[in-house]
Amino acid sequence: MAEVEVSPASRATAYTSLAAGADFVHEIEIRRSRFITVLRGTQDEDSARSLISGLRREFHDARHHCSAFVLGPDRDIQRSNDDGEPSGTAGIPMLEALIRRETAAGVRDLSDVSAVVVRYFGGILLGAGGLVRAYSESVSAALDLAPLVSRRRLRLCAVEVDHTAAGRLENDLRSAGYVMAETSYGARQTILRLALPDDEPGIAGATAHLAAMTSGNIGLRPEGTEWVDVPLA
């Protein structure tokens, strides 16, 4: 029986992100200044910077377009920009609001998220402390309402089985709680695919379960990994 190796590409096998789709927009007003926060799920720096440049064009008459983003399963890419606000009063508070966000009790794993706060100056100076609070609050308030998902790295594994036995085995696997991916058909065999947690316990458990179901006659063949978004309960 072939041994399935866990992907070494990332230490993380799951993290929290923003649900795909339209941008999430939230606005607050502080002492006549408008702070418009735009959140978007972004999986690379080009996508993050595209959001920033697009909002500069859309809100071309705004005083500032401050930004922050955190990317990657291990959150190893983190950037921020004050865009003309006093150094350290906008981008860094925004970034800290992202990386310090608790998505569960004691869990800080938010990633692949970009935030841009567009500020229309209202004529009243807020001071350094006021700006820090305003930009941090803007992002935090938006995250309070934004739709989040659990992004999980799943290992795709193929199971080759005779056509006559494929239906029953697939039903047994589904009944056991396994997530089934695409099924394909060869001349003599059906190829079932399972989407498994990409970690040693999950793969070992599936291997043992399959062996018990088939008297050790059928094994798992690894076919790579993919990240899948699952709605949070």
Q: Catalogue the unreliable spans.
A: 1-7
General form: elongated
Largest sheet composition: 6 strands, antiparallel
**Radius of gyration using CA atoms only:** 23 Å
Number of spatially distinct domains: 2
How far apart are the first and last residues' alpha carbons, in Å?
Answer: 37 Å
Q: Give the proportion of residues in helices.
A: 25-40%
- The CATH architecture assignment of the largest domain turns out to be 2-Layer Sandwich
Please give the CATH class of the largest domain: Alpha Beta
CATH H-level superfamily title of the largest domain: Impact, N-terminal domain
Mean pLDDT score: 91
Question: Strand portion, in percent?
Answer: 25-35%
Enter the CATH topology name of the largest domain.
Ribosomal Protein S5, domain 2
Structural class: alpha+beta
Number of strands: 11
Folded structure, characterized:
The chain is of the alpha+beta class and 233 residues long. The chain folds into 2 domains: 20-146, Ribosomal Protein S5, domain 2 (2-Layer Sandwich), CATH 3.30.230.30; 153-231, Alpha-Beta Plaits (2-Layer Sandwich). It has 5 helices and 11 strands, in the order βββαββαβαβαβββαβ. It has helices at 45-58, 91-99, 127-145, 163-175, 200-213; strands at residues 14-18, 24-30, 33-41, 64-71, 77-81, 113-120, 148-162, 179-180, 184-185, 189-197, 221-231. The strands form 2 sheets. Strands 1, 7, 8, 9, 10 and 11 form a 6-stranded antiparallel beta sheet that branches. Mean pLDDT is 91; it is low at 1-7.
